Please model this.
Amino acid sequence: MDVNHPTGTHSRADALALRYGTEAEPTNGPWNDVIATLLSHRSVRGFLPDALPAGTLETLIAAAQSASTSSNLQTWSVVAVTDPAKRAALAKIASNQKHVEQCPLYLVWLADVSRNERLGVEESVTLETIPHFETFLVAAIDAALAAQNATVAAESLGLSMVYIGAMRNDPVEVGRLLGLPPGVMGVFGMCVGYPLPTVTNAVKPRLPQSAILFHDTYDATGESATRAVYDERMAAFSQRHDMTQDTWTKRVKGRMGKIAAMSGREKLVSILNGMGFPLR
Ligand SMILES: Cc1cc2nc3c(=O)[nH]c(=O)nc-3n(C[C@H](O)[C@H](O)[C@H](O)COP(=O)(O)O)c2cc1C
Model:
């Protein structure tokens, strides 16, 4: 089985085996090209300079705008960043992730309540819900759903991508660079392009379904055993792809164990307060 197989061209059994790092799971069920594309997703962190075909950006955005949006409020926007100086500054914010500068298309996805706020001003109505945490959450969810639709569209076209959550290392500076008004926050970035042939481009195994799918009642029984199984699969995956040998347990401890791993994001609530999201 070729792990670097082009997007969506594996058989059902092979695609599921890659996703779970073992035999196909679940063993039976429906299958089509869309699901094949979804299951073959992998983040790519190195891009060729090749430009995308004309109209690709607009097609990805049409896919993004086709996602559901809470109450059709459409509280998201997106900035395509082409200016090399801005790209360099954004890469620096993202702890020097070189692909932010390198990829042919870099998008910053925005939670954006400012448009609706301006509507309120023009219509002389106070939109009382705007300062509430619920509204920020709706905007962040809207942005994520839109971005994921763009991801699926890109991958269905044979493009690769990686999300850049590290935009939240410094949302104020991202806002300054992109001219964001109050009530707009860059929730994450996204690199899109053709993968460098030299970078790891493999489907990363996920937790077994028994760890995350429950029927009627949440049930964490057996979780330790499931985690041990997944740790083994992730260790084997890391070894296969010359990554620092890593288990999922180690990763969770490393990313969630110390505040320092938040790279400044631990101050997010107070930062948002200063960005027009008072979050009540
Ligand atoms: C919101 C979000 C932010 C992310 N931020 C980064 C990032 O800043 N840098 C990076 O290399 N990967 C980032 N990732 C990619 C994840 O590390 C990746 O999705 C995860 O390890 C699973 O691997 P896969 O996407 O190849 O299946 C992010 C993913 C998400 C969903």
